[in-house]
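Q: What would this complex look like in 3D?
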Amino acid sequence: MTTSLSKSPTIGVFDSGFGGLTVLHALLPLVPTAHYIYLGDTARLPYGSKSRETIARYAVSSAKFLHQQGAELLVIACNTATALALEDIQQALPIPVIGVVQPGAQAALSASSSNPVLVLATAATVQSHAYTHALNALGLAACEKACPLLVPLVEEGWINHPVTNDVIKIYLTEALTAAPDTQTLLLGCTHYPLIQPAIQRVLASLGHPLTIIDSAHATATAVAACFTNVSRSEGEPTCTFYATDSIEKFQRLGSNFLGQPVADVNLIDLGG
Amino acid sequence: MTTSLSKSPTIGVFDSGFGGLTVLHALLPLVPTAHYIYLGDTARLPYGSKSRETIARYAVSSAKFLHQQGAELLVIACNTATALALEDIQQALPIPVIGVVQPGAQAALSASSSNPVLVLATAATVQSHAYTHALNALGLAACEKACPLLVPLVEEGWINHPVTNDVIKIYLTEALTAAPDTQTLLLGCTHYPLIQPAIQRVLASLGHPLTIIDSAHATATAVAACFTNVSRSEGEPTCTFYATDSIEKFQRLGSNFLGQPVADVNLIDLGG
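A: Here is my prediction, written as structure tokens for the whole assembly.
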């Protein structure tokens, strides 16, 4: 895959909203010579509670937009879109497309013994069983747990909040009852890295510490592997952001996910 | 308004999702001779976190669909769409269009002394200040409080749940600090009637009971007033449901809001 990609590539990063900025955050130091084009389909978020057909339609139109803007490689930095529409996107575009599920599963393989991997994700990702299929293909068992309230809690900004701790405890207690022997927790949603410290604290309080795999970081590593000709000490990455809804909100919320100010946001209409 | 409407009217009811079914639930016994067409724009929900331009675009296309299906009167059973797009919809359609804000404000006037009315609503409804404008026009002061987590909690089914109680308590404590003299609480989101008992319990525990106004019920009463020639003892209402995303989910979640099984759901594509 490396041969056709330039040394200063244009990399498209797509998410339904802000969560994919955690993938971009992990990517910036790994491929610093790239120009990044990020699209948050904020007018149609969240994808996590919608059907496969609707998600595929939204994701393909978003991916085509990034290709039109010059992306040479596309990162689907959204677990739900990867789980339900990766093949549709790959078929629709003539460029390499990397999702978050496969890298997450690979990272779990590196960390895991043969116990089931516990996967926390949105309702749609869990219903797709994409992580179960990817983990099974690597010889690992999986136990998936839908956590619909975690995205709204992160977007409310309740990162370090007793209510968020309570909700995490409820979800994890249910999940650990179903998979008491698990040693590995895979964060199957790009919002979840923001509450990883809270998840770790809850696991400690339950007396059940787990190795936590963050699919955002695993994906960034997989993308960087496509650019072996790029030095990490060269260059300064540049970013252009597109959103389908409020620019002001994208700048305000996005900076929490990116870990730095989000500037240069352009509003676009994908016809939704 | 009553003269041009038939005795067995076709009434369109629109919401971004399921919440408007609480308005339909209140309408069925008040105008039992009607045929109801309900549209939940579930592929593009939630509206409550999106911008005015996006909400207006979605709401107008949804309203036009219901008019094309034969609606003689349209109820915008969505606080966010009413707050941000009622005028756009009224200008786009040649039929009477009734939103939820004005009836809610009127009901608060009937219940209130001159203390500020406390309004709980989504972020977008609060940012529009539609309730403040409507209440001020009636000579009432308003204090609005955005409660972004209540819709996700209701949709998770955590109606009677300690976490929901905690979240309600946090929101109400903040709101009552800002408006300590309020006597009246207006539920400015059609999801909130489902947690009205929990809200009442929290208010009692805070030692601050309030008269609760439900804009869903107030709107149904306002719609019924357009049909003074209809007897409440006549006929049996019929309903046709349309959704822009998963029919299965609409049937499953919708029955909680309607208080009876939701059958005959049709999937439509509004181009989102």
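A: To summarize the key features: The interface with chain B takes residues 42-44, 49-51, 54, 58, 148-149, 152-153, 155-156, 158, 162-163, 166-167, 170, 244-246, 249, 271-272 of chain A (CB under 8 Å). The longest helix of chain A spans residues 52-68.
Q: Very helpful, thank you.
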